[in-house]
Design brief:
The chain has about 170 residues and is mostly helical. The chain is built from seven helices and three strands, in the order H-H-H-E-H-H-E-E-H-H. The chain is globular, with a radius of gyration of 20 Å.
Length: about 170
């Protein structure tokens, strides 16, 4: 007879964990919106008026490589219709080049232009400067890496829940 595994109860949250838990999704959402504000400010500083912060985020997520539109949608968890609209606008303004796959005409490939690659490098430089500023005076030099690890673990936990159900 095969024994069923006994479900283990997770350890209780600390009182600090109980206090943080309800606010966590709001903090994540505010961070996303604040980052879009940072992108908007930097685009304005660079004199870029024909690119929205969300479009800049798409460019940053491409990593200067040719990608299929569907791959970009999956990678960034973007809404399909909005992504196609943004890509169309970025092609019109010279930030992306768009081609159809030679093997499967349904697949649209996009790649950043030189114009967008230079802008992405400028934004990445600003991100590094902001990270240095964040770490200034921090007693733990690995604070940014630790925050990244925690957020990635949280993302995996939520992904696993969506894919497999209850833990």
């Amino acid at each position: 007879m095969v024994e069923k595994p006994v479900p283990q109860t997770p350890p209780p949250l600390s009182s600090a964990g109980d206090a943080v838990l309800p606010d966590l999704p709001r903090v994540i959402e505010r961070l996303h919106r604040r980052f879009l504000d940072v992108l908007r400010a930097e685009l304005t500083r660079q004199g870029v008026r024909d690119l929205a912060p969300v479009q800049m985020l798409l460019l940053l997520n491409m990593d200067a490589a040719e990608v299929a539109v569907q791959e970009l949608i999956d990678r960034g968890s973007y809404l399909r219709a909005q992504t196609f609209y943004n890509i169309k606008k970025m092609v019109e303004h010279g930030y992306l080049e768009q081609t159809r796959s030679k093997t499967d005409r349904r697949i649209v490939q996009i790649r950043p232009t030189k114009k967008s690659q230079g802008l992405c490098e400028t934004i990445r430089t600003r991100q590094r400067e902001l990270a240095v500023e964040f770490l200034r005076g921090e007693d733990r030099p690995d604070a940014l890496e630790q925050a990244h690890r925690v957020l990635r673990r949280l993302e995996r936990t939520w992904d696993d829940y969506l894919r497999y159900g209850r833990p």
